[in-house]
Design a protein that fits this description.
Elements (H helix, E strand, L loop, with lengths): L1 H21 L1 H13 L13 H6 L3 H11 L26 E11 L2 E9 L14 E10 L2 E9 L4 E2 H15 L1
Antiparallel strand pairs: 1-2, 2-3, 3-4, 4-5
Helix pairs in contact: 4-5
């Protein structure tokens, strides 16, 4: 009986460790967003730096980003975006009330839900105001959790689909 309890406890510990790891790449991106939008903001590492594309994003997402990055939003830039895709805009307050919550693995993907307040400094808010929300879809590749997509609610949708759209639209115009 003692052995069975020990095996069950060890199994639970492994499950908890795996669940905690699921949010690791998301936590890294959100730490960067918090740092970048702080009142004493410092220039940090791009969300989509080559090092991060290789380490915390899926191969499919990294490929979509690299294809879209061939068509930067600005002449002097290297990003296909003209806005911060994490805060969903060009203007933001410092990030407060950050919550990262990893959901269960369903068919090889975990939904890591993120909510935060980045509008507290912009004046009065509507009565139906809700915090900003993102859903990071995390999969496992080569034994590590990696971000395969970032889904933004309210009709904005999949960041990976946006990247693919940029690449295909711009490639078609050449």
């Amino acid at each position: 009986m003692k052995r069975l309890v020990l095996v069950l406890l060890a199994s639970c510990a492994v499950s908890v460790a795996v669940a905690a790891d699921t949010a690791a790449p998301v936590n890294e991106i959100m730490r960067e967003a918090v740092k970048g939008w702080a009142e004493d903001a410092q220039t940090g590492e791009d969300y989509f730096s080559e090092a991060r594309l290789q380490r915390i994003y899926s191969q499919d997402f990294a490929k979509a980003y690299r294809e879209a990055a061939k068509f930067p939003a600005y002449d002097e830039g290297d990003s296909p975006f003209d806005y911060d895709v994490i805060v969903s805009g060009q203007d933001s307050c410092s990030i407060k009330d950050l919550n990262v919550s990893a959901g269960p693995d369903v068919e090889g993907k975990s939904d890591v839900a993120v909510t935060f307040d980045n509008t507290h400094c912009l004046g009065e808010r509507a009565a139906d105001w809700k915090p900003s929300e993102l859903h990071f879809l995390v999969i496992e590749e080569a034994g590590h959790p990696v971000i395969d997509d970032i889904v933004r609610p309210n009709g904005v949708g999949s960041l990976k689909a946006e990247l693919q759209g940029i690449a295909s639209q711009e490639a078609g115009e050449q």
